[in-house]
Amino acid sequence: MTLNGHNKHTKLARPSLGSFGRNEWAILGAPCTVIKLLADEVIKALAPDYKGAYADTTHADDVTNAPGRLGAGAVLEYTDQLQYSQLSYAAPLSPFQLRQHFSQADFVLVNGNHQQAKAQVLILDENKKASLQKRVSQLTNVELILVSDNINEVFDFIEEAVPNWRDIPVLKSDDLQGIVMFFKSKLIQNLPKINGLVLAGGKSQRMGFDKTAVKWHDKEQRYHVADMLRGFCNEVYISCRAEQQELVDKDYAVLPDTFTDLGPYGAILSAFRSEPDSAWLVVATDLPLLDETTIQHLVALRNPAAIATAYTSGFDGLPEPLITIWEPKSYPQLLAFLAQGYSCARKVLINSDTSLIPPANPDALTNVNTPDEHDRIKQLLHQKIASHD
């Protein structure tokens, strides 16, 4: 509600989510059993590379009582089934809760006979023609048409409801390979772009001077790192505190913290708040030995099915959070940890589905935080330069 043109709610960039997730398709036009079997086959075929999920509604007439402790009045029941975990809720899940639960899935297939999704896969079957006609209003974004053996032409009501139907791929309903390739191509096409984020908002208290401005390589380190990232990212931003914006060269895009007093954690959240559908290649400025080869290796081994792709530390074997590709699915995870009182990016990586890779050059991950470390690395760089002369 607005009063005299004033909007009392902060305008936020919302991720492009549907009922369940970013990539979701409702399959409709066939019996529920056919839809479930097709979903099984597609999820199984894509499982090596993508996390699939399925949404449906049970309609077994004999299920009248709530299961387990829900019938006794519990609002939630968690059961460790050893091979899988099960959560049962007493109350219906809101759209916000559903999206939270499905946030780690790369794609969601939906039984369109009971649930809706932002895109649809349409099965044309003469035996389900009348049923499909009742659901014409759900056909908001048909991306694939599957035809059964008993179909020779598209139904008249489909031509009317889907004006661009001639431009939509059409496959036989038993062409599993073609169907799987359709979904795979869509997931590749929808792969989140990578933006670069140079962490330059620290106060350098241990160093005693601004370490982002040290000229390890003929220019200030924050600009040196930003220039390296440009070859691998769609856009590159220098992350800083609000009061530092005017200190950054106008040739570089700035992304000030909107989650304040949280250090690097706040910088990552601020990046996702700005562009929640992008992946973020986050790099700290206190890595003077970092080179393009190390960045290229990380990008080449990116696993978008994980929440993040990170190097393991040569020191303790734990993830290096500040040279990491954070996927869009990590945004709700980061917020969830913050809600529980944690603001450690490494803790999120350790306790989440993170893809970890050993660094090709462990020395490239050496960070500098104190004057003694600064002097040691400076001397090492000078020796390298001298050896090349």
Automatic annotation (TrEMBL):
Domain MobA-like NTP transferase, first and last residues per copy: 196-349
InterPro entries named in the record: MobA-like_NTP_Trfase, Molybde_CF_guanTrfase, Nucleotide-diphossugar_trans
Alphabetized Gene3D superfamilies for the sequence: Spore Coat Polysaccharide Biosynthesis Protein SpsA, Chain A (3.90.550.10)
Residues holding GTP: 199-201, 211, 257, 286
Enzyme Commission identifier(s): 2.7.7.77
UniProt main location, coarse: cytoplasm
UniProt-annotated location(s): Cytoplasm
Catalyzed reaction equations: Mo-molybdopterin + GTP + H(+) = Mo-molybdopterin guanine dinucleotide + diphosphate
Entry-linked Pfam families: NTP_transf_3 (PF12804)
Residues binding Mg(2+): 286
Cofactor: Mg(2+)
Keyword line: Cytoplasm, GTP-binding, Magnesium, Metal-binding, Molybdenum cofactor biosynthesis, Nucleotide-binding, Transferase
Domain comment (free text): The N-terminal domain determines nucleotide recognition and specific binding, while the C-terminal domain determines the specific binding to the target protein.
Entry similarity comment: Belongs to the MobA family.
Functional summary from the UniProt entry: Transfers a GMP moiety from GTP to Mo-molybdopterin (Mo-MPT) cofactor (Moco or molybdenum cofactor) to form Mo-molybdopterin guanine dinucleotide (Mo-MGD) cofactor.
Protein's name in the database: Probable molybdenum cofactor guanylyltransferase
Gene source species: Mucilaginibacter defluvii
Gene symbol of the encoding locus: mobA
